Amino acid sequence: MVQKLKKSLYFFVASYFRFFASIRLKVWKPRIVVVTGSSGKTTLLHLIESQLGDKAKYTHEANSSFGISFDILGLHRKTLLLYEWLMLFFLAPIKVFSRLPKEKLYIVEADCDRPHEGKFLSEFLKPEATLWTNVSRTHSMNFEKDVKNGKFKSVDEAIAHEFGHYVQRTKNLVIVGNASSLLEKQLSRAKCTIEKVLDKGELINYGVDKNGSTFVIGKEKYVFKYLLPQKTSTLILMCLSLMDYLNEKVDKSFNNFRLAPGRSSLFEGIKNTTIVDSSYNANLDSMTEIVEMFSKIGSGIKWVVLADMIEQGNREEEEHKKLAELVLKYNFQKVILMGPRVSKYTKPILIENGRDVVNFINPKDVLDYLLSNAKGEEVILFKGARFLEGVIEHLLKNKEDVKKLVRREKVWQIRRKKWGL
Question: What is d(CA 250, CA 239) in angstroms, rounded to the nearest whole number?
């Protein structure tokens, strides 16, 4: 009942904040660049920031109908608890008159977690340029109603259509990455120039190890000190295309690039283990990218901790069985599953194929298992939903690294505590 009420009031309440944010936006008048897509948005945002630096303002940790308005108004949620909303409602009209940002370029990460969100945000932002990374099944359950009522043939089509609103309302340039047939169909809505970056350069070589990632694209070599999946090459090209459009000089070293928390961050763990933290979120596409990347990180004892892919709706069985097929491609020494979905759909397939698998529902049980069974030297990948960051927190050798994990707000601390973490 509570969830249904939240959904029904979502855009009604979001419109309140958008009203005041739009006033401030009209006074500020920045050039707006939207970064959108099912995955890779945040990494692309950080690639762009590594090039532009303080020449632009960026929507860090704010990509929703609420978050973007909050960012424009200079409102910040610190705890994510309910009482904060009263202060936010009170401050919104006051913040309209606060000092404007000095930057005249605004790089906005914008999502489409639900029907109408792309329309809601694109009408508000009216971007000068849009960078669209890809389309995949994220938050699928939110789009099932539009399939059932016959508006779309599939959830994938419904998601692509929602992203298409950004394309439709972009003024000058749309830059696209992995142009699937779903994405291509939406490009017909554009009233501006379309640039497909995969026509501009070919990935010649890709390498990854504990020291970082290397991409050879055309005649250029790009080296990063972070673990990045192979498809990051497309994001690099999108970033370079935007720099060309903005007439900005390119720093090919990307020395100023910083990886966002929970996107394959590398940590030293207790017992001389190594932790690869990709706990921010998960759908099958992102699972595939990260698991494939992890398989390429040298030799050694490799364990994977995989949790549920949530909000998949009536496709959750299909997606979690595909996850099993993905894992079967690689010879990981141990597979640890957490959550009811991976336990029900993924585990049986792995067991049938002779894999060493254990499964748990509670993240505390995963932590206890790792503390008891890790002997040392293991390289452990964490990917999926359901509080994996809380498990990682207790496995870090350097406790200062806790600050580098995702979901540090008070509300998440309370929820992790309820799960025994």
Answer: 9
In a domain, 1, yes or no: no
Ramachandran angles phi, psi of 212, nearest 5°: 145, -160
Largest CA distance in the chain: 64
Final residue of a structural domain among 210, 245, 280: 245
Q: What total of structural domains would you count in the chain?
A: 2
Range of the domain at 373: 265-418
* Phi and psi torsions of 175, nearest 5°: -105, 125
270-329 pLDDT tens trace: 999 999 999 998 889 999 999 999 999 987 899 999 999 988 888 899 999 999 999 999
The CATH number assigned to the domain holding 315 equals 3.90.190.20
In total, the chain counts a number of residues equal to 421
Please say whether the beta carbons of 120 and 169 come within 8 A. Answer: no
Class of residue 417 by CB neighbours under 10 A (exposed 0-12, middle 13-18, buried 19+)? exposed
Among the candidates 245, 274, 289, a domain finishes at: 245
pTM for the predicted model, two decimal places:
0.94
Q: How far apart are the first and last CA of the chain?
A: 28
Tell me whether residue 254 is in a domain: no
Distances (CA, A) of 44 to 52, 60, 258, 347, 376: 12, 12, 11, 34, 35
Burial of 320 per CB tally in 10 Å (0-12, 13-18, 19+): buried
Instruction: Specify the DSSP class assigned to residue 218.
Output: T
Amino acid occupying residue 141 = M
Say yes or no to pLDDT of 20 above 80.
yes
Relative to beta strand 173-176, strand 129-132 is parallel
* 267 SS3 class: strand
Which residue shows structure tokens 């389309």? 135
Instruction: Kindly indicate the confidence band of residue 408, based on its pLDDT and cuts at 50, 70 and 90.
Output: confident
Which tokens sit at 148? 């059932």
Tens-digit pLDDT profile for residues 326-382: 999 999 999 999 999 999 999 999 999 999 999 999 999 999 999 999 999 999 999
